[in-house]
Amino acid sequence: MDEGKPAKAKWWSRPRPQHTAGFQEAPPTEDRDGDFTLPRPRPRPAPDGSTGTDDGDFTLASPAARPGPPSPGAGSPAPVDGRPEPLHDPDPYSTPPYGEPGPWAPAPPFQHPAGTPAHGTAAPPATPPALPTAADAAPPAPCPPPLPPAPVPEPGAPTSATSAADPWRRYDPWAPAPAGPLQHSGAAPAPGRARPRRRLAGVAVLLALVSGGLGGVVGTYLERGGGFGTVELPQAGKEPQARAPGTVAGIAARALPGVVTLHVSGAEEQGTGTGFVLDARGHILTNNHVVEPAGADGGITVTFHSGDTAEATVVGRDSGYDLAVVKVSGVSGLTPVPLGNSDNVRVGDPVVAIGAPFDLAGTVTSGIISAKERPVTAGGEAADGSDVSYVDALQTDAPINPGNSGGPLLDARGRVVGINSAIRSADTGGDPESGGRAGSIGLGFAIPVNQGKRVAEELINTGRATHPVIGVTLDMSYAGDGARVGTRGGDGGPAVTRGGPGDTAGVEAGDVITEVDGRRVHSGEELIVRTRAHRPGDRLELTVERAGKVRKVSLVLGSSDGD
């Protein structure tokens, strides 16, 4: 049926490349949408001579019968127009089956069509082609050969009017591709302009370099500075302040309030030492060599653990035991340090030392009891030897340094078992307060508290301390094993005091004492130490050698006032 639309070629019906009589190819008319309208085929005259109906369709003629052997008596039918009838619809477009495409080839998808009228502008109606008549029936003209592809203009060359009027340039997909790049407008790229890909590559490289530099700077800052924010390190929370009584911290916490630091100044020298409170009345026990620089007109300042200070006076002192008692007045709330029993101490027991080494008050160190009854002599700077002290000491490896002298040596229960008095150092080998200022090498010595208690009581009660004596003068130059009794006394009198303990027991001048209570004695100093470890009135058993014979004697210790 004729719907009023111009007939167009259908892709599914490609006619054979034969020209049929009675049809004539009409030139295509250009449409507004870039296609073209095909002309209607002219109707064939009907067998009855009519031109048929004008409804847009046409009736195909029946194909002519194939010529066969002539039947007898019948003549051969003559072909129409001298040619055989086609087997299908005639091809009004003269499209060859092979070779170059016909005018029905579609426009390329990457080309822009020609400009269309603006929105709202009425387009001229398409003029339907005139139907062919019988008079116009003529053999169709041969199909013109396809046009060669339009040449690609050189860069910068002006565009011809023909190219502008025909934007499609009769595109031929079978033609060789043009040498220049495809353009939307058909214009060649301007000379000297950089390609976009190269520009993008350059931008990418620049961004990579900048990003790498910034990353290195940031990484260096993070590594050296620790980050951008404030650093907060993990930390344990608060714990109870109390410690177990048997720990070093527990012992120190109970003893420190009763330990004091003494600053002594005299006319010629000054020094620092340690002491500890004996009672609530203000008596403080320390070493004699600590307060000795004060002399008769010097001053002693006591600093308590709380930081309070008070002036002190000397109650009594004894150089032979190296002990002294001072007293502070007008001070309340004192905390005495409890006293232990040095006879209960065993080698290996843990101990804690408290003092002010090099004026560092409240210093706490710990160690063990390394040995007991170690004979130690200290002092000896005086020409007459009156400053020499003889101590039957407790040895400890708790660090003791100059300034610890007079401080307490505590057991595991926080009780005083010794008074720190001397150290053996690598260079001086004696009293830490004399000579050089060498430090501890793990050889510290403390006066047993039992001896210290007795001497302190005597100093507080009488101002003087008594020494146990045998009543003989010893030959301190004797190099043999044992302690030899001298031939003359220190005042030029006899070496054995008449009526004294030794004289009563039968000791004579020149005798060599080798044992005290069954313990070997190797020198005169050691005999003095063993004797002073006892109280006056104690009985001793001595082993004496005389003229190659050994005998045992028993005596009761006498008493003499100390200096």
Describe this entry's structure for a reader.
The protein has 563 residues and is of the alpha+beta class. 13% of the residues lie in helices and 22% in strands. It is built from seven helices and 21 strands. It has helices at residues 161-165, 196-225, 248-255, 288-291, 449-462, 501-505, 524-532; strands at residues 29-30, 36-37, 259-265, 270-277, 283-286, 299-303, 309-318, 323-328, 350-355, 363-378, 389-396, 408-410, 416-423, 444-448, 466-469, 483-484, 512-516, 519-520, 539-546, 549-556, 558-561. The strands form five sheets. A six-stranded antiparallel barrel has the order 3-4-5-8-7-6. The chain has a six-stranded antiparallel β-barrel with strand order 9-10-11-14-13-12. The longest helix is centred in the middle third of the chain and has 30 residues, at 196-225. It is elongated. The protein starts with 28 loop residues before the first strand and ends with a strand.
Key phrases:
563 residues; alpha+beta; 6-stranded antiparallel β-barrel; 6-stranded antiparallel barrel; 21 strands; PDZ domain-containing protein; hydrolase; Chloro_Bact_Ser_Proteases
Order of helices and strands: EEHHHEEEHEEEEEEEEEHEEHEEHEEE
- In one word, what is the shape? elongated
Helix content: 10-25%
Largest sheet: 6 strands, antiparallel, barrel
State mean pLDDT (0 to 100 scale). 77
Structural class, by secondary structure, is alpha+beta
The CA-CA distance between the termini, in Å, is 156 Å
Strand order of the largest sheet: 3-4-5-8-7-6
Total count of helical runs of at least 4 residues: 7
> How large is the radius of gyration?
68 Å
- As a percent range, the share of strand residues is 15-25%
Number of strands: 21
Name the poorly predicted regions: 11-26, 71-76, 160-164, 428-436
InterPro entries: Chloro_Bact_Ser_Proteases, PDZ, PDZ_sf, Peptidase_S1_PA, Peptidase_S1C
Biased composition (Gly residues): 487-503
Transmembrane segments: 200-222
Biased composition (Basic residues): 7-17
